[in-house]
Amino acid sequence: MKLTLPTIGLLSAVLITMPIAHANDQQDAAIGLMALNSGSATITTLAPQVRTVSTGVITEIELDDYKDTQIAYKFKVIDTKAGKKFKLTYAINDGSLLREKSENLSTLGFSDLDREDRNAIEQVEKAQFDIVKKLIELETKYSAKTLEAELESKKGVVFYEVELASTERGMQKLLINVATGEEIPVMHRQSHK
């Protein structure tokens, strides 16, 4: 690759902003952890509420802000048997349901799921893999809280990408194989004390 002045400038800009993005991720994780530590809602307490709405596959759990007023857990659930996709948002401070939205999985008879997503969901169902049960196990094992978990499918492997945070260990990312339950650490960022 021939390095021209514009290319060098672009690469420099990317390299300069990488530490800023890293710092923002850590700060967001720290703020989320503070909210989780001061709130009463946890993955354990919210799971039964989610399951009363749908017993489908949880494809994503994300700790995020809700209308810039509070921190909330957002759940995305795909229920192929009911033909619906659910988006549920729960307050961290008290576990109350802030938002519930459901949509059909098909439009005019055509599935809204692409082949890769459908395959990933089928693999979770086949393996009877329960991401909530696994997250509870990981939170106990690492004395951490869940920031995010998302179902992924790459190179024929179906897995959840999980981000955890704790005051002792900082932020860490794991990949959880749906077929075997195996966990592979991807990243560990120690918090600065």
Automatic annotation (TrEMBL):
Keywords: Signal. Residues 1-23 form the signal peptide. It comes from the Bacteria. It comes from Vibrio halioticoli NBRC 102217. This is PepSY domain-containing protein.
